[in-house]
Design a protein that fits this description.
The protein is α/β, with parallel strands linked by helices. The protein has six helices and nine strands. Helix 1 links the parallel strand 1 and strand 2. The radius of gyration is 16 Å and the shape is globular. It binds 5-O-phosphono-beta-D-ribofuranosylamine. Keywords: Purine biosynthesis, Transferase.
């Protein structure tokens, strides 16, 4: 299965997926909207084709997303993976890849959509935090949940220590979700996630 990964920065989730060595998965390309994203360098070190598409060079969000979709299609993806891709996607883009586009968000959705999830979790005083892989729907950081991982929030935690604990779990569950998809076990059916048992 061909996978195209979109990112904007560090790329540690992309790296975790690449390192997982999922049988039958081929990362056809890693695309960034930021030419200086660290994740592009990491992808190249894995021998993965990379592409930077600068959103500032496009007049509108619609124009940029149309150009991005055209680039993605060149790689004939079975799956599009958002891994720290920090731009809001247009509805047209989301519909185009519906049922074959995943995202990871650093909270236990539906709690704490949006930014600064760890800071907000600490401020709210929640005792557990975590991360969610979900199919992408037009609502930001929302969409049918594929897999979640839970971590404790400790009394001495700050934003960074909690973020690190959550990130370690992201590196486990994102490759797992991709593996399920590549094995043909994960699908979106009438808006609901279905994970079939292994054969
Ligand atoms: C992750 O925490 C992910 O949940 C969020 O952005 C971060 C990306 O990190 N969407 P990285 O670029 O994969 O290291």
């Amino acid at each position: 299965k061909n996978i195209v990964i979109l990112l904007s920065g560090r790329g540690s989730n992309m790296e975790a997926i690449a390192r997982a060595g999922i049988p039958g998965a081929r990362i056809a390309a890693v695309i960034s909207n930021r030419p200086d994203a660290k994740g592009l360098e990491i992808a190249r070190s894995f021998g993965i084709e990379t592409l930077a598409l600068d959103h500032k060079a496009h007049a509108s969000r619609e124009a940029f997303d149309a150009a991005l979709a055209a680039e993605i299609e060149r790689f004939e993806p079975d799956l599009v993976v958002l891994a720290g891709y920090m731009r809001i996607l247009t509805d047209a883009f989301v519909r185009r890849f519906e049922g074959r586009m995943l995202n990871i968000h650093p909270s236990l959705l539906p709690s704490f959509t949006g930014l600064h999830t760890h800071r907000r979790a600490i401020e709210a005083g929640v005792k557990v935090a975590g991360t969610t892989v979900h199919f992408v729907t037009p609502e930001l950081d929302d969409g049918p949940i594929v897999i979640q991982a839970v971590v404790p929030v400790l009394p001495e935690d700050n934003e960074d220590s909690l973020a690190a604990r959550v990130l370690a779990q992201e590196h486990q569950i994102y490759p797992q979700a991709v593996r399920w998809f590549v094995e043909g076990r994960l699908s979106l059916e009438n808006g609901r996630v279905r994970v079939r048992d292994a054969q």
